[in-house]
Structures are given as C-alpha cells and as structure tokens.
Amino acid sequence: MQARTQGPGRVIFAMYVVFVIGSVSRATFQIITEFSVAPLAYTLSAIAAAIYVVATVSLAFSGPRAWWVSMVTISIELAGVLIVGTWSDLAPQSFPDATVWSNYGQGYLFIPVILPIIGLWWLLKNRPESTKRSRR
Amino acid sequence: MTWIAALSTAAQTASSSSYLDVYTGIALAFGLTVAGVSVIWGLRDRAPDRLLIGATSLLQVVLLAYAARYLVISIGGEGPVGPVWELWAYLVTIVMLPALGLIWAKDEPTRWGSFVLAVAAFVAAVMCGRAAQIWAGVGMS
Prior knowledge:
The structure holds two protein chains of two kinds.
Chain A: H1 8-34, H2 39-60, H3 64-90, H4 111-125
Chain B: H1 2-15, H2 22-43, H3 50-75, H4 84-106, H5 111-136
Helix pairs in contact in B: 2-3, 2-5, 3-4, 3-5, 4-5
C-alpha cells in the first residue's frame, strides 16, 4: 500500500503541518504568558494542538495501526471544532480569547472545520485492507 | 448568531487597511500571485516545473527580506504593538514555508506537488498580512 502522504495526501499533510506549527506555538505561549486570562480557551487550545500533532504524525506512518490513530484523532478534531464552535457561539462569555476552534474556525477561513472532513474522506478512500475485516 | 457579527467585524477590519505598509503589500501580492499560478498549474495537471520552482524560490527571498526588515527595525529599538512572541512565531514560520513546500514538492512530481506549493505560498502571504497587523496592533483586544 502506498503511504497516505502521496498524491492529494501530500496537500492534506501540508495543511496539517501548518496547523501543528500554528497551534503548538500559540498554545505554548498563551499558557506560559497569560493562562489566567482565559483558562478554558487556552486549555482547549492545548488539547487542539495535541490532537493536531498526533493526527499529523500518524498520517506520516503507513499501516493499519497508524490508520486507526489518524481516524480517531481526526474524528475527535471534527467533533471538537463542532462542539467548541457551537459552544463559543452560544456562550461567548466563556471565551474571552479565541481558540482555533471558536466559531467553527472562522478566524482561520473555516479551514479547521473543512480540514478534518477532507482528512476523513482521504482516510476512508485509502483504507488498508486489513482494517476492513471484522475482528470479533 | 455571533459569527455573523464577527464576520462583519472582520470585514470592517479588513477594509481599514492602514496597517498595510508597502513591504507587506509586496509580500502579500507576490505570495498570492505565486499561490494563484500554482493552483492553475495543479488544475491543469502540471507538476512543479522550473518556472514554478523559480517563482517559489524568489518568494523565499522576498520573505527572508521581509522578516529581515522586522529584525533590523527591532534591533533599532522599535517594537510591535501586539505580542512580540506572536510576531516572531509568524515570521519564523513565514520564512520556513516556501523551503518546506519545495522539499515536499520535490518528492511529488505530480499536480499535487503544485498544490502543495500553492498552500505554502498562500499561507505565507496571509501570515505576512497577520504579522503586519500584529506590528500595528490591529485586531488586538
């Protein structure tokens, strides 16, 4: 099986690398310098950063185990952006500072909500055969 | 429907473009041009060729000069209105993007290599705009 970072996967992977750089540096500095300002938002930023890191690293590996790790982390990412997006819309007072997932990633051209959908599509399209068999 | 309000605020912020100095304008325009050409290459099923690699390399030089200018005026004692760490996080990322894109595209001599270059150039261009906003303190709470 070809690696998942070939062809269109390369573009998806490149987008994930950008989000890893952005989210990790932002979360790190927010937590170090101004955690007390918006603890909820910055904790969510850190969780989002961790998920982007695991998703990106697992995309770079081939094999069924890495495929499952990508599948789970990108699903969490999609759930996260939908939940935080709705939450920040309903209760903006909880979010004195924005997270990458606030308002469905509106501050980032909505890429945070589009990227996991494309990611999941790509994973399902490149599903390793061995993950398809039911394993009791 | 806070996002509608946020969207209109964003539109207003974008229209007050006083933070856009000539250097940012050049970097932004050049980055978007390279991104646009790369998208056309990808849509036409063309792999990165000498022209596209040359344009991206030139963008790399422009972005290095862009970041170097901030370094020089920072050493000269000026500083951003926004957070210093954020400005440099953006500038360091900006100068890495075309190089990373070129390395990544070299392994992918297909249309997808061109799309990777498009992503790198577009993100770098947008980040130049954001760096200038941080310097001028636009959109700071």
